[in-house]
Amino acid sequence: MSECIFCKIGKGQIPSKKVYEDDKVIAFHDINPEAPVHVLVIPKEHIESVNMIDENNSKIIAHIFVAINKIVKELNIQESGYRVVTNCGQDGGQTVGHIHFHVLGGRNLQWPPG
Ligand code: 5GP
Ligand code: ZN
């Protein structure tokens, strides 16, 4: 999947405004933010969407949420609150075929989404 843009961001081949990185995960500011804080958290490993999560790769999801906990503390939204969203497929509004978790905060978010 050499053409996947999020794989390329994970490898540092496309620049991003990084907020967190470890050996398995990278987090960076969304290029088109929908809230004062809008970060994307992705596994470096290519997984297309929630549809591709199984017993063999599911540990990365727990690891991503541990990373999110660190990121929201760092970005000062842990106390005020935030939303973690992963869009899946066409009706879910997924536009990039590499699983990613949106972390949105810094304003009062409305519910339900449109
Ligand atoms: P989706 O619509 O798939 O849930 O979310 C994809 C997100 O990736 C969008 O919010 C979009 O703004 C963001 N995005 C797409 N391409 C890039 C990029 O090259 N760099 C960054 N930082 N964000 C991107
Ligand atoms: Zn990818």
Write up what this structure looks like.
- This is HIT domain-containing protein.
- By secondary structure, the chain is an alpha+beta fold.
- The chain has one domain (5-105): HIT-like (HIT family, subunit A, 2-Layer Sandwich).
- The protein contains three helices and five strands, in the order αβββαβαβ.
- The chain has a five-stranded antiparallel sheet.
- The radius of gyration is 14 Å and the shape is globular.
- 24% of the residues are buried.
- The mean pLDDT is 97.
- It binds guanosine-5'-monophosphate and zinc ion.
Comma- or semicolon-separated keywords:
binds zinc ion; binds guanosine-5'-monophosphate; 3 helices; HIT family, subunit A; globular; alpha+beta; five-stranded antiparallel β-sheet; 5 strands; 114 residues
